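Example (one chain per record):
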Amino acid sequence: MKFQCVNELDQLSFDDSGIVSFYVEEKKIEFTFQGAVVKAKNSQNARYQDMYCGEIALQLKNAEVARLVKEGMKYYDADGNLQSEIPDEDVPAPAQAAVLKRLAKGTVFTVVHDDVKEGYAAEFGIDVPKEDDEEEIDTFWLCVTYEKSVAGWDRYCSPTEEN
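Predicted structure:
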């Protein structure tokens, strides 16, 4: 990778980034994203404006999946009256491997950084096509802790529209 930053996950944006590949191994989580943004204050960004990059590889080292949650829903009628509610649900350990495999076809809509005593923590909000109907989506929150993040990319594409 031509460009690389370490522990600057907050200086990258993965909003609306498609996941090209995703792997969870012992103590390591790897993503490859399409359409990520390198923020202006990233140490590797000499343009000082938010810039799209092609594919970006993200490695989270000494990482663990702290929690995997399937987001619930609320259904309202046309008058705004709550009709039914499906609560958030923790994905049980036996089902996590199958859900993690599905995340490789998802799109990240946000990454929230959390404070922890040691290392780092982040929650990835990921929309994934449903298995039985690809027009519908399931939303998952992948909550991870890690000691080190390494992101690498080969080129910048263009400034974001906000610049």
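Caption: The chain has one helix and 16 strands.
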